[in-house]
UniProtKB/TrEMBL annotation:
Stretches that traverse the bilayer: none
Domain PASTA: 30-98, 100-168, 174-241
InterPro entries assigned to the protein according to its UniProt record, in alphabetical order: PASTA_dom
One Pfam match: PASTA
Domain of life according to the entry: Bacteria
Protein name: Penicillin-binding protein
Organism, scientific name: Prosthecochloris marina
């Protein structure tokens, strides 16, 4: 009888130890939270150390545009932002500048709106050194590129330049147009709010995979930034995702 009692007591003590050391600790951690430290303008390795000290992890990503005056090892943006309350172990995306000047093949801009071309070239830091206006009789060619100084498929690097010839039709404006707001780099929710507040409507949302850019942010919009459009016009968005 005493032996059975002793076995029961041992099992109860063991159960208490398991509950106290493992189950209760796990339960308590579920309700914990930490605040994201400010790691912007830090070097990447220093930022990782600060996040580790706070119980968080960091993941490297790259800015949409190449910034010529920013060191490639410096954190320029963090997501979530500093001061956000998150669970321990949360991943913080650290946005760095691209290491090298990007190179890309010049597209064929014939027939594209000038504002759209500006947006494409601005993303790759290619300057438009001159825009020559040429009269056209077809209204469809108004504001569209007719010719370019750098031939399509020519490979150029960031900092290059190009000049354009754009059509101009003498058309009487019947509706006052307003500039389309810049929502690049915003979250989808924030972008939709800004678009509506500026008198436009949100349109189709397409998604593009990238392991380098900040997930769920806008990387392209149509009409382009500052393009003049009629109030109520639909603005389509492209959002980056990190899962294929």
């Amino acid at each position: 009888m005493m032996k059975k009692v002793l076995v029961v007591v041992v099992l109860l003590v063991a159960g208490y130890v398991v509950m106290d050391k493992f189950i209760m600790i796990s339960y308590t951690r579920q309700g914990q939270s930490v605040f994201v430290p400010n790691v912007e303008k830090m070097s990447y390795n220093k930022a990782l150390g600060a996040l580790k000290s706070a119980g968080l992890t960091g993941k490297k990503s790259y800015n949409v545009r190449y910034l010529p005056d920013i060191d490639s090892n410096t954190v320029i943006v963090q997501r979530p932002v500093a001061g956000s309350e998150v669970k321990p172990g949360r991943t913080v995306y650290l946005v760095l500048n691209k290491r090298e000047k990007p190179r890309f093949s010049i597209p064929d801009f014939y027939g594209r709106p000038l504002d759209e071309v500006r947006q494409i070239l601005d993303r790759f830091d290619v300057a438009i050194t001159g825009v020559q206006v040429q009269s056209v009789y077809d209204p469809a060619e108004d504001g569209k590129v007719l010719s370019q100084s750098v031939a399509p498929k020519t490979v150029v690097s960031s900092g290059s330049s190009i000049s354009l010839i754009v059509g101009k039709a003498e058309v009487v404006e019947t509706v006052q147009k307003i500039p389309v707001p810049d929502v690049l780099g915003m979250s989808l929710k924030q972008a939709r709010t800004v678009i509506v507040e500026n008198g436009f409507n949100t349109g189709n949302v397409s998604y593009e995979y990238s392991s380098l850019l900040v997930p769920y942010t806008v990387i392209n919009q149509k009409p382009a930034v500052n393009a003049l459009a009629e109030p109520g016009k639909v603005v389509d968005l492209t959002v980056v995702v990190d899962d294929e």
